[in-house]
Amino acid sequence: MSTTERAARALKTVKDEEWRTLAGLERTASGYGTADLGRLSRTAKLPIERVRFAVGELLRKGLAQKKGSGYSLTQQGVELMALKDYVKKDLIFALGPIIAKGKESDVYEAVTEEGTKYALKFYKIGRTSFTKVRRKRLNESADIRSWMTSNYEAAKREYDALRKLRGLSPAFPEVVTHSRNSVLSEQVSGVRLMQRPELVDPRSAFVSVLGAMRLAYVQAGLVNADLSEYNVLTNGESIWLIDWPQAVPASHPNADDLLRHDVEALTTFFRRAYGVDVSAGDAYLFVRGRLPKLE
């Protein structure tokens, strides 16, 4: 069972003093990484004996961990707090099955009380690499701060990018909100291009991808900066461009190089996978808005 699934199961078992202690652990994480009972007592505004009991419960439930003389949140604890946010705002009622699993994030189906289905992405940057990094460091508190900062910032960056893209094209999933290391957005039904699904019209699909990239660049001033067949979804006819945490503004000093890289990656893929022969140079000029249409 994943940390997200365990967090969902634990949601109804966490009591008020445990929530306050979790919030205290989160507040201290950015500054100290870990917190001892005294600091937690002051941050949570609870008597130290109540904090001691709450910490024991959080440890038992896998929501906190002991680090030296202090305590810190676990990934499961962070995800529990995000889930509580969504439930409290009546945005989700239940967590569904996992939709996609990657190196840096997992995406779950989330369902509202009315039955509407969303995609709930949890960033888990460092779930493999951080273990190796940690062995090389003496300060585990820095690791905790780095893990939380990396994942919280990735979620915020993706949310901000999708907000800028909102309404420009159906190719950009509609974002709802974000919390901690997670982003809640419209669920789209498609498979990644890297699976080489059958396309109704491969050339038309490629032009649609380039058209969406053009809208992102010209109207929203954004470059995805990591676009490839791995983060384009399709149902065979429609396409969606997903994964925007690394997006940079068109004014970024490296934006031009990053845009060229995105265009070349997709041009190469469509040529090899579907025999679509479009000049990478023309595709680049089209996305930049310098070429009115592709021949």
Structure description:
Residues 128-140 have low confidence and may be disordered. This protein is an alpha+beta fold and 295 residues long. The protein is built from 10 helices and 12 strands. It has helices at residues 3-10, 16-29, 37-44, 48-60, 75-88, 129-135, 140-165, 202-218, 255-274, 280-288, and strands at 64-67, 70-73, 94-101, 105-111, 117-123, 175-179, 182-186, 191-192, 222-223, 232-234, 239-241, 248-249. The chain has 2 domains: 3-168 and 175-183, Arc Repressor Mutant, subunit A (Orthogonal Bundle); 191-288, Transferase(Phosphotransferase) domain 1 (Transferase(Phosphotransferase), domain 1, Orthogonal Bundle), CATH 1.10.510. Helix content is 46%, strand content 18%.
Secondary structure layout:
Blueprint: H1 3-10, H2 16-29, H3 37-44, H4 48-60, E1 64-67, E2 70-73, H5 75-88, E3 94-101, E4 105-111, E5 117-123, H6 129-135, H7 140-165, E6 175-179, E7 182-186, E8 191-192, H8 202-218, E9 222-223, E10 232-234, E11 239-241, E12 248-249, H9 255-274, H10 280-288
Antiparallel strand pairs: 1-2, 3-4, 4-5, 5-7, 6-7, 8-10, 9-12, 10-11
Helix pairs in contact: 1-5, 2-3, 2-4, 3-4, 8-9, 8-10, 9-10
Short description:
By secondary structure, the protein is an alpha+beta fold.
Instruction: Name the shape in a single word.
Output: elongated
Protein structure class: alpha+beta
Low-confidence regions? 128-140
Helical coverage, percent range: 40-55%
> In the CATH hierarchy, what is the class of the largest domain?
Mainly Alpha
The percentage of residues in β strands lies in 15-25%
Query: How many discrete structural domains?
Result: 2
Largest sheet: 5 strands, antiparallel
Oligomer: single chain
Please name the CATH architecture of the largest domain.
Orthogonal Bundle
